[in-house]
Write a structure and sequence with these properties.
The structure is a homodimer. The first copy, chain A, is of the alpha/beta class. Chain A contains 15 helices and twelve strands. Chain A has helices at residues 12-19, 23-30, 38-50, 57-64, 80-91, 93-98, 113-121, 138-149, 174-189, 206-222, 238-251, 265-274, 290-298, 309-325, 331-334, and strands at residues 68-75, 101-108, 129-132, 153-157, 168-170, 194-200, 226-228, 232-233, 255-260, 282-286, 303-306, 339-341. In chain A, the strands form two sheets. In chain A, strands 6, 7, 8, 9, 10, 11 and 12 form a seven-stranded mixed β-sheet that branches. In chain A, strands 2-1-3-4-5 form a five-stranded parallel β-sheet, with helices on both faces. In chain A, helix 1 packs across helix 2, helix 1 (12-19) crosses helix 3 and helix 11 packs parallel to helix 12. The structure holds a DNA duplex.
DNA sequence: GGTTATTTGAGGTACGCAACTCATTTTGAG
DNA sequence: CTCAAAATGAGTTGCGTACCTCAAATAACC
């Protein structure tokens, strides 16, 4: 086996010659076109593998002709997350157009399964790839599977639908996020003992349920001195979260820790500040926004668990592109890490 | 201005027509070739800007012909960091060869300025891009500048040489890393007061000096109850670090915190364990290795500040490629973040 | 004005691959 | 063996750009 020569790399022509077939046959094998004997397919694939041959991306892309279209299906309404993703995609516009990629945003009510499902159905045939912030619901699952069957590459973003046949999930491991939150609360509370409150949007949401699960896991096994109170369900609304939290703080003067699983941060923080106990209670929440940034700087929040939205946007695009091209995915690169953000490492 | 049509994007031919010049002239402008009047250059560039035209990467890459060669200049010896970088580059091999990129490792004594400088000089003309773990020294700076003048793209990795004309630095903000370490030590120590020890390789190393600076900054301003002891210089050697640390622990029974700035972790940990005070002393260090992972799991170390080596390797390659192609760099994507790793979020 | 230097145009070739056509060979069934 | 079906070969075209040559047009100079 000869040394791989940088300046005269193998081409499909070389593979054809070495496999003893014509260029046309190699092309048929490479693109799963019919009319090749199984034995020949094997021979060609072996030759490709033996030389660890990779088709030149540039050549393939150029010959392909048409541009690729990707759709990002995101929550409608005045959603900060959506705005962030959009702005990060905007920063990539040069990168995208240099590769003849078109990325379009599709706003829909991702919390209504049937609306989301029909939005997804409408994309069939139009796009080469779809990234979707998905609800885990049978009709959504079916819509995703239909897209996949139609030849589109599908990536779930932030919130997964593991039972579907989506090709990839770009987002954090929410159980690990909950565990991390638990460890932070426990360690920052220190030697004190007392009660720990949890506020979530709803335990019916997969993300939230998983985070709570992880949080409780760590609490039970590592911080027996801390007593976790029943979960408050604030529906991610500020007002409701504030009411519930105020009531809880009033009833339990020995609360030393607080984990806010989802949104509604404004309300939770207000209740805490109004109680005058923001310095005694360790407060850990999610995501770095204008609000949580302020709370961290004020010392009201002690840490935020963050999933870099810029990374999520770029990873989704890269994964869709790699899938469409048939390239391998650098899974470690695309893995969304759980960032612990405290006052001193605010990005 | 017409809508950008996804399926028939502009080409150089369109730009030429619209600017009222020939393809050859556009080519001359695009590649800074001589023989074009300033006025014509302006006109062409304006047309390109007006249409926010981006040359098709695939076309350019294909027409280019020769492959690109990048060199990674890294510390020689049984160095874990180098092994990691190499293994991460190995994982990218498919990605690299599909783009006809050749990445080679060059091992050298990066701690000896003259050796490093001559290693760099030897690369001149051979490579399109160079990533180097560099010492900040006049002769190294000169060697980097020579490479740049020779047309190579140069990226400093992990350790910067800001006074050189390197095109980019891929690595963390070490002052911020020190600040983060300080915040962690301070908060994990909690309400206790006492002394804090610092072990570094050498205060002459830029990285270490910057980390110590950031650490002291936070200590002074936020944790007045903690008294920082003078820095021990362990030269990143286990044995020496252990001796110094043992002595210090013996002399100061009220040490509550310990920041290990560089390597020599094995020695520092041994001294701490031998003193039997590993549970009382908050120990924060750098990097997730086999060793620090074990120490974190054992509860000897409380947190590690980590700079994802996989991300560093990939970012260096991407930046070199973007520079070589003349593409914009997605600076946020390439920014190496400071990861806080505790037992419960070990990667 | 003529002469030279500079600028521009026109065109070609090549890069590696996708996608296609059409002719030819091989295979397998009867 | 024959004959149709299946498999394969040989070839073409075009994608968008880089890089090159040579001729033609224009500008600058005396």
């Amino acid at each position: 086996m000869k040394e791989p020569d940088v300046n005269s790399p193998l081409t499909l022509r070389d593979i054809a010659r070495q496999a003893g077939v014509s260029l046309a046959t190699v092309d048929r094998v490479l693109h799963n076109r019919p009319g090749v004997r199984p034995d020949t397919i094997r021979r060609v694939k072996e030759t490709i593998a033996r030389n660890s041959f990779q088709p030149h991306v540039a050549g393939a892309e150029l010959a392909r002709g048409r541009a690729r279209r990707f759709a990002f299906v995101m929550p409608s309404g005045p959603n900060l997350f959506m705005q962030q993703i959009q702005s990060y995609l905007g920063e990539m516009s040069g990168w995208l157009s240099a590769r003849r990629l078109a990325v379009e945003m599709v706003a829909t009510d991702v919390f209504d399964a049937s609306v989301l499902a029909s939005s997804l159905e409408a994309l069939a045939g139009e796009y080469d790839g779809v990234a979707v912030v998905a609800l885990d619901h049978p009709s959504v699952r079916a819509a995703i599977n239909d897209l996949v069957d139609g030849g589109a590459k599908v990536v779930t973003l932030v919130s997964d639908v593991p039972s579907s046949r989506r090709h990839y999930y770009v987002g954090i491991d929410n159980i690990a996020a909950g565990r991390t939150a638990g460890a932070l609360v426990g360690r920052l509370v220190g030697p004190r003992s007392g009660k720990v409150a949890i506020v979530a949007g709803s335990q019916g949401l997969r993300d939230h349920a998983e985070r709570i699960f992880g949080f409780n896991q760590v609490m039970a096994s590592e911080f027996p001195a801390l007593n976790v109170l029943p979960v408050l369900e604030g529906r991610d609304e500020d007002e409701r979260s504030e009411q519930l939290m105020s009531r809880l703080l009033g009833r339990h003067p020995d609360i030393v820790g607080l984990y806010n699983v989802g949104a509604g941060t404004q309300g939770v923080a207000k209740a805490l500040i109004d109680s005058g106990r923001e310095k005694q209670v360790v407060f850990v929440g999610h995501d770095v926004t204008v609000l949580t940034r302020k709370l961290l700087l004020q010392g009201v929040m002690d840490a935020a668990i963050s999933q870099n939205p810029g990374h999520e946007a770029r990873a989704a695009v890269r994964v869709l592109l790699a899938l469409a091209r048939g390239e391998p995915i650098l899974s470690e690169q695309e893995k969304i890490r759980i960032d612990i953000v405290m006052r001193d490492n605010l990005p």
